[in-house]
Amino acid sequence: MTLNAISRRDLFRAGPYVLIGVSGLISSTSVLAEQDTRSAEQEGTAAKEQLVRTYVSGFENKDWNVIDNLLADNFTFTSPNNDDHISKAAFKRRCFLPQLDFIKKFDLEKIFVHGDEAFVKYLCWTTKGTSFRNVEFWRFVDGKITAIECYFGGHLGYPAASASAKS
């Protein structure tokens, strides 16, 4: 192997070109890393949106097993209806079961996912033909729903009030 000596003058002349080449390589690597990160975030967002849609289908189909499988063991639910971080069992007893006869379907209007949190806005149709709109703040951990905070919209209240035509 032959070593060629490079003068300091040649080294200084080559320096800017080497820096430009290295910075281009670093820039290209950064762009690829950003694309990979965005792709993973988009997959995570899509998975959380699907959790929301599956949860809603559980309500519409009156299927507690679907909902139960989506909720973490330490799930909590909060609403203005005197529900302050109630457990999964209390949620089933106080919120899911009593509303089965009143909820017909949900129109999901907006799902905004950011990291492990989401805002969900929906229009719920009751079996009496009335509707109400709510917004919920959701939290996710390891592919499960860990918390939902429900904010009632309009003057109708939750489905029981809407179904009894209190408008």
Account of the 3D structure:
The protein has helices spanning 8-60, 64-70, 88-99, 159-163, and strands spanning 71-79, 83-86, 103-114, 117-126, 131-141, 144-152. It has 167 residues and is of the alpha+beta class. It has one domain: Roll (Nuclear Transport Factor 2, Chain: A), CATH 3.10.450. β3 and β4 form a beta hairpin. The radius of gyration is 27 Å and the shape is elongated. It starts with 7 loop residues before the first helix and ends with a helix. 17% of the residues are buried.
Question: Which helices and strands appear, and what pairs or packs with what?
Answer:
Blueprint lengths: L7 H53 L3 H7 E9 L3 E4 L1 H12 L3 E12 L2 E10 L4 E11 L2 E9 L6 H5 L4
Helix pairs in contact: 1-2
Regions with little confidence, pLDDT below 50 for 5+ residues = none
Which radius of gyration do the C-alpha atoms yield?
A: 27 Å
Give the strand tally: 6
What is the CATH T-level topology? Nuclear Transport Factor 2, Chain: A
If classified by CATH, what would the architecture be? Roll
Please summarize the sheet with the most strands.
6 strands, mixed
Please give the CATH class. Alpha Beta
Distance between the termini: 91 Å
Q: Please give the share of residues in helix.
A: 40-55%
